[in-house]
Write a structure and sequence with these properties.
Strand content of chain B: under 5%
Oligomer: heterodimer
CATH architecture of the largest domain in chain B: Orthogonal Bundle
Radius of gyration of chain A: 19 Å
Largest sheet of chain B: none
Largest sheet of chain A: 4 strands, parallel
Structural class of chain A: alpha/beta
Order of helices and strands of chain B: HHHHHHHHH
CATH superfamily of the largest domain in chain B: Alpha-helical ferredoxin
Number of domains of chain A: 2
Number of strands of chain A: 8
CATH architecture of the largest domain in chain A: 3-Layer(aba) Sandwich
Chain lengths: ~300, ~140
């Protein structure tokens, strides 16, 4: 069975270590991710202005691509794309006046009214596979890995698109438990990493990262588990800068949840592309017996 | 001899215009806010702002456009929606922040020049940072 899948731009370039382990893992789990044909950039952020309909065209066009495939569900992986596509879908479903304007503007396309359900891959793992079934597929349990789930903003806000409870999300914790890891809860797990402010105020990024990383570390985390390529960039860059400023600051490996999934399913480190990660995960993985004798990780760090 | 005509623009009228535009673009009822400060308390960027999120709402509904224009607050907002989900009145401040940004950007005044981002950073930044940032800071 194949799932209609929307990757988005970043997953094909800066975040191949988010996408490639996901594609390999889903194939191993018997739910192949089939890219929708002719997908385009979703616009990255949802338009918050009431009169700004032109920026809804890009995400809606992608939803139409899924509808044309006869699919009633579109799986996303990038947290930004998930948010933009799901909010645009809600708009098309609930606002008849704007729906009509957008449909008339795109007269070369079939009409669309929010028929496709936009879901995140974590929801597929929870709702279509199930934690119990997932745990039975684990070949290399991530035993003793103290990993802190970090949600960021776009999977949980606004409330109407959240994949889990806004105040007390557990989906990543349950995911990590299914893989055999020891999840570490910490209070800043949904605090913003600074997002696109990195292009206008790069000097502030380490100060956005500081409370998040300090909180995770003080709760005993050995690694942070991420879902978003921009969180990865900002926290990776932020912790490097913090380590330069304070000699006692300890950097920790940042993993995408899909990398831990592929590793636990026994697909090997090559499928995980750890070499593209911020922070060197090799010593931690070796300490936890998650790399065998002959296996290694070649981090490139900032030279990605 | 040309007759001189003096036109006085009432500050009250321009203030009303500003409030009307913010309401139109944001779709929000600015009077919902009762100034409890949950938005400021939950904002991860508040420390970098010169006017707090709570005060920006008050200035906006009074129509004090000049005070807001001189502040960096709306440009420091990362649209993380921590204010939105925590507001006890259901006021979506992220939409008001966007409306105020757009009132500047639509006058063709950009907040950022892409060429000012160092080239080595442009190569390393994820696309979602570039696309979303340029959407928020340029018109």
């Amino acid at each position: 069975m194949g799932l209609a899948y929307y990757p988005g731009c970043t997953l094909k370039t800066r975040a191949r270590n988010l996408e490639e382990p996901a594609v390999a893992s889903m194939e191993a789990l018997g739910l192949k991710l089939d890219e929708v044909p002719r997908w385009n950039c979703c616009g990255a952020v949802y338009s918050l202005a009431d009169d700004d309909l032109i920026h809804q065209v890009a995400p809606v066009r992608n939803l139409i691509r899924a509808k044309e495939q006869g699919k009633d569900e579109l799986v996303t992986l990038c947290a930004f794309c998930f948010n933009t596509l799901k909010r645009a879908n809600l708009l098309m479903k609930e606002d008849a006046e704007k729906r009509n304007t957008i449909n008339s503007f795109m007269n070369e396309e079939v009409d669309y009214s929010g028929e496709v359900k936009v879901v995140h891959l974590l929801e597929v793992l929870r709702d279509e596979i199930g934690w119990e079934a997932l745990s039975q597929k684990v070949k290399l349990p991530l035993r003793e890995l103290k990993a802190a789930p970090y949600y960021g903003c776009t999977l949980l806000r606004p409330r109407e698109v959240a994949i889990d409870s806004v105040e007390n999300p557990t989906i990543l914790r349950e995911f990590l438990k299914a893989l055999g890891a020891s999840p570490v809860d910490f209070p800043e797990s949904a605090r913003c990493c600074g997002s696109y402010q990195v292009i206008s105020s790069p000097g502030d990024i380490s100060e956005y990262a500081r409370p998040i990383l300090n909180s995770a570390l003080s709760h005993g985390a050995e690694a942070l588990v991420l879902t978003c390529p921009l969180c990865d960039y900002n926290l990776g860059r932020g912790q490097k800068e913090l380590a330069k400023k304070q000699s006692e600051f300890r950097e920790m490996p940042l993993f995408y949840f899909t990398q831990l999934l592929a590793l636990a399913l026994g697909l090997g480190p090559q499928a995980c592309h750890f070499e593209l990660n911020h922070g060197n995960p090799e010593s931690l993985l070796r300490e936890k017996n998650l790399l065998s004798q002959g296996e290694s990780v070649q981090p490139i760090g900032g030279q990605r | 001899m040309t007759k001189k005509v003096f036109v006085t623009i009432s500050p009250k009228k321009s203030r009303r215009e500003f409030v009307k535009k913010v309401k139109e673009l944001s779709g929000q009822n600015l009077q919902l806010c009762y100034q409890c400060g949950m938005c400021t308390g939950n904002c991860p960027a508040a420390a970098n702002m010169d006017i707090s999120p709570r005060r920006i709402i008050e200035l906006a509904r009074l129509g004090l456009e000049e005070d807001i224009a001189g502040s960096r607050t709306v440009w420091t907002c990362a649209s993380c929606l921590a204010c939105t989900v925590n507001c006890p009145r259901g006021f979506d401040l992220s939409k008001m922040m966007e409306a105020i940004r757009l009132l500047t950007l639509r006058k063709n005044i950009d907040r950022l020049r892409p060429e000012d981002i160092p080239s080595e950073e442009r190569c390393d930044l994820p696309q979602i940072a570039m696309v979303s940032g340029l959407r928020k800071f340029t018109g």
